[in-house]
Amino acid sequence: MKIIVIVGMPASGKNIAHTYAETKGIPYFATGDLVREEVRKRDLSPSAENMALVSTELRGEDGMGVTRMALQTAMDIKEPLVFLEGMRSWPEIKLIKDEADATVVAFLAPRASRLERITTRGRSDDSPDAFEARDQREIEYGAAVPLALGDEYILNTGTLQDAFRDLEAIIERRRPISE
Fold first, then answer.
1. Which of 32, 34, 83, 163 is deepest in the core (most CB within 10 A)?
2. What does the DSSP 8-state code read for residue 45?
3. Does pTM top 0.90 for this prediction?
4. Burial category of 145 from C-beta neighbours within 10 Å (exposed 0-12, middle 13-18, buried 19 and up)
Protein backbone atom coordinates (compact mmCIF):
# COMPACT_ATOMS: atom_id res chain seq x y z
CA MET A 1 0.00 0.00 0.00
CA LYS A 2 1.14 3.51 -0.86
CA ILE A 3 -0.09 6.38 1.29
CA ILE A 4 0.12 9.99 0.14
CA VAL A 5 0.11 12.11 3.30
CA ILE A 6 -1.17 15.63 2.69
CA VAL A 7 0.04 18.31 5.10
CA GLY A 8 -0.29 22.07 5.19
CA MET A 9 -1.43 24.96 7.28
CA PRO A 10 -5.15 25.89 7.28
CA ALA A 11 -6.34 27.08 3.85
CA SER A 12 -3.05 26.18 2.15
CA GLY A 13 -4.89 24.11 -0.46
CA LYS A 14 -5.08 20.63 1.04
CA ASN A 15 -8.63 20.30 -0.27
CA ILE A 16 -7.18 20.34 -3.79
CA ALA A 17 -5.75 16.91 -3.02
CA HIS A 18 -9.18 15.75 -1.83
CA THR A 19 -10.80 16.92 -5.07
CA TYR A 20 -8.01 15.30 -7.09
CA ALA A 21 -8.48 11.98 -5.27
CA GLU A 22 -12.23 12.08 -5.83
CA THR A 23 -11.79 12.64 -9.58
CA LYS A 24 -9.36 9.69 -9.76
CA GLY A 25 -11.35 7.35 -7.51
CA ILE A 26 -8.56 7.24 -4.91
CA PRO A 27 -9.71 6.80 -1.29
CA TYR A 28 -9.13 9.91 0.85
CA PHE A 29 -9.25 10.06 4.64
CA ALA A 30 -8.98 13.37 6.48
CA THR A 31 -8.66 13.73 10.23
CA GLY A 32 -10.70 16.94 9.97
CA ASP A 33 -13.61 14.91 8.60
CA LEU A 34 -13.35 12.57 11.59
CA VAL A 35 -13.40 15.58 13.93
CA ARG A 36 -16.39 17.13 12.11
CA GLU A 37 -18.22 13.80 12.35
CA GLU A 38 -17.54 13.62 16.10
CA VAL A 39 -18.80 17.20 16.56
CA ARG A 40 -21.96 16.20 14.68
CA LYS A 41 -22.40 13.03 16.79
CA ARG A 42 -22.18 15.15 19.95
CA ASP A 43 -24.81 17.50 18.56
CA LEU A 44 -22.47 20.47 18.92
CA SER A 45 -22.44 23.45 16.61
CA PRO A 46 -19.51 23.16 14.17
CA SER A 47 -17.93 26.41 15.37
CA ALA A 48 -14.21 27.06 15.30
CA GLU A 49 -14.15 26.74 19.10
CA ASN A 50 -15.97 23.38 19.19
CA MET A 51 -13.85 22.00 16.37
CA ALA A 52 -10.68 22.98 18.24
CA LEU A 53 -11.88 21.43 21.51
CA VAL A 54 -12.93 18.12 19.93
CA SER A 55 -9.80 17.99 17.76
CA THR A 56 -7.57 18.39 20.81
CA GLU A 57 -9.56 15.77 22.72
CA LEU A 58 -9.46 13.20 19.90
CA ARG A 59 -5.74 13.69 19.42
CA GLY A 60 -5.34 12.32 22.94
CA GLU A 61 -2.37 12.57 25.29
CA ASP A 62 0.18 11.56 22.67
CA GLY A 63 -1.39 13.69 19.93
CA MET A 64 -1.91 10.74 17.58
CA GLY A 65 -5.41 9.43 18.34
CA VAL A 66 -7.12 10.81 15.25
CA THR A 67 -4.20 9.77 13.05
CA ARG A 68 -4.49 6.20 14.35
CA MET A 69 -8.20 6.25 13.46
CA ALA A 70 -7.54 7.51 9.93
CA LEU A 71 -4.62 5.14 9.36
CA GLN A 72 -6.58 2.10 10.52
CA THR A 73 -9.47 3.01 8.23
CA ALA A 74 -7.08 3.38 5.29
CA MET A 75 -5.29 0.11 6.05
CA ASP A 76 -8.58 -1.79 6.36
CA ILE A 77 -9.67 -1.04 2.79
CA LYS A 78 -6.53 -2.59 1.31
CA GLU A 79 -6.32 -0.29 -1.72
CA PRO A 80 -2.94 0.11 -3.44
CA LEU A 81 -3.04 3.94 -3.15
CA VAL A 82 -4.77 6.13 -0.56
CA PHE A 83 -4.54 9.69 0.68
CA LEU A 84 -4.40 10.72 4.34
CA GLU A 85 -4.72 14.32 5.45
CA GLY A 86 -4.50 16.18 8.72
CA MET A 87 -1.32 14.89 10.31
CA ARG A 88 0.16 17.68 12.41
CA SER A 89 3.36 16.28 13.88
CA TRP A 90 6.39 14.24 12.93
CA PRO A 91 5.46 11.37 15.27
CA GLU A 92 2.19 11.04 13.33
CA ILE A 93 4.12 10.90 10.05
CA LYS A 94 6.52 8.34 11.52
CA LEU A 95 3.58 6.21 12.69
CA ILE A 96 2.26 6.13 9.13
CA LYS A 97 5.67 5.51 7.57
CA ASP A 98 6.21 2.60 9.97
CA GLU A 99 3.00 0.97 8.70
CA ALA A 100 3.16 1.69 4.97
CA ASP A 101 5.14 3.21 2.14
CA ALA A 102 4.28 6.88 2.56
CA THR A 103 5.10 10.12 0.78
CA VAL A 104 4.51 13.46 2.53
CA VAL A 105 3.18 16.14 0.18
CA ALA A 106 3.21 19.61 1.74
CA PHE A 107 0.91 22.33 0.42
CA LEU A 108 2.32 25.81 0.96
CA ALA A 109 0.65 29.20 0.51
CA PRO A 110 1.40 32.71 1.79
CA ARG A 111 -0.35 33.78 5.00
CA ALA A 112 -2.25 36.59 3.25
CA SER A 113 -3.61 34.13 0.67
CA ARG A 114 -4.64 31.68 3.38
CA LEU A 115 -6.43 34.40 5.37
CA GLU A 116 -8.28 35.53 2.25
CA ARG A 117 -9.38 31.93 1.58
CA ILE A 118 -10.61 31.53 5.16
CA THR A 119 -12.55 34.77 4.81
CA THR A 120 -14.26 33.70 1.58
CA ARG A 121 -14.69 29.91 1.58
CA GLY A 122 -17.59 29.81 4.05
CA ARG A 123 -16.76 26.79 6.20
CA SER A 124 -18.40 26.84 9.62
CA ASP A 125 -15.10 26.21 11.40
CA ASP A 126 -13.35 29.10 9.63
CA SER A 127 -13.01 32.38 11.45
CA PRO A 128 -10.86 35.27 10.25
CA ASP A 129 -10.79 36.50 13.85
CA ALA A 130 -9.38 33.15 15.01
CA PHE A 131 -6.84 32.84 12.16
CA GLU A 132 -3.80 33.71 14.29
CA ALA A 133 -4.88 31.42 17.14
CA ARG A 134 -5.61 28.58 14.72
CA ASP A 135 -2.19 28.92 13.09
CA GLN A 136 -0.56 28.99 16.52
CA ARG A 137 -2.46 25.87 17.61
CA GLU A 138 -1.32 24.05 14.45
CA ILE A 139 2.28 25.07 15.13
CA GLU A 140 1.98 23.92 18.76
CA TYR A 141 0.70 20.56 17.50
CA GLY A 142 3.98 20.34 15.58
CA ALA A 143 2.73 21.09 12.06
CA ALA A 144 5.90 22.94 11.05
CA VAL A 145 8.03 19.80 11.15
CA PRO A 146 6.11 17.75 8.53
CA LEU A 147 6.04 20.87 6.37
CA ALA A 148 9.80 21.29 6.70
CA LEU A 149 10.54 17.59 6.15
CA GLY A 150 8.05 16.95 3.34
CA ASP A 151 9.03 14.61 0.52
CA GLU A 152 7.30 16.77 -2.12
CA TYR A 153 5.96 20.34 -2.20
CA ILE A 154 3.18 22.20 -3.94
CA LEU A 155 3.44 25.98 -3.80
CA ASN A 156 -0.23 26.86 -4.10
CA THR A 157 -0.12 30.38 -5.50
CA GLY A 158 -1.36 29.74 -9.04
CA THR A 159 -4.54 28.34 -10.50
CA LEU A 160 -6.40 25.21 -9.45
CA GLN A 161 -5.20 23.62 -12.70
CA ASP A 162 -1.58 24.41 -11.76
CA ALA A 163 -1.97 22.68 -8.39
CA PHE A 164 -3.71 19.68 -10.01
CA ARG A 165 -0.89 19.38 -12.55
CA ASP A 166 1.74 19.56 -9.79
CA LEU A 167 -0.05 16.92 -7.72
CA GLU A 168 -0.52 14.67 -10.76
CA ALA A 169 3.22 14.80 -11.44
CA ILE A 170 3.96 13.84 -7.84
CA ILE A 171 1.49 10.94 -7.92
CA GLU A 172 2.97 9.65 -11.16
CA ARG A 173 6.48 9.73 -9.66
CA ARG A 174 5.36 8.09 -6.41
CA ARG A 175 2.61 5.71 -7.59
CA PRO A 176 3.04 2.09 -6.50
CA ILE A 177 4.49 -0.06 -9.27
CA SER A 178 1.89 -2.80 -8.74
CA GLU A 179 -0.95 -0.49 -9.76
1. 83
2. -
3. no
4. middle
